[in-house]
Specification:
By secondary structure, this protein is of the alpha/beta class. Helix content is about 25%, strand content about 25%. The chain has five helices and eight strands, in the order αβαββαβαβββαβ. The protein starts with 5 loop residues before the first helix and ends with a strand.
Length: about 160
Amino acid sequence: MKDSTPVTRALEAAGVPYRFFRHPGPVHSLEQAAEERGQRPEQVVRSIVFRLAQDEYVMVLMAGPGQISWRALRSYLGQSRLTTASREEVLQVTGYELGAVSPFGLPAGMRVLVDESVLAEEEVSIGSGERGATVILRREDLRRALPAAEVGRWR
């Protein structure tokens, strides 16, 4: 029986295939997470939440060690200011703790931006909604599961 999280339930409801992976212990780095999953760091997708305004958030999916260009992101979003959401805000708007955030199974809709670096990989892993665990899926399945996601370059 598969482990059940809001993410796995959302993927199952959408008919999206995935593999669930639980780490044997605490994860302390991107490199450790990738190694334990049998992946390269570029295959680990980080889900980063930004606050645009009061009660307005956007999630950016970034591959591995890639850094988001604040200038490019502000320009794309038409924002002069944005900040990363606080730990409390992330939990409030996603229902997930830092380290477990995912664009799947969110309590309310959120705009999702996917950096093209994420789609450069055949297989990626992304937050499962539970710390210490991940879901692994193919690029095509990730894309199919996020039909409204906006793809661009935010590095």
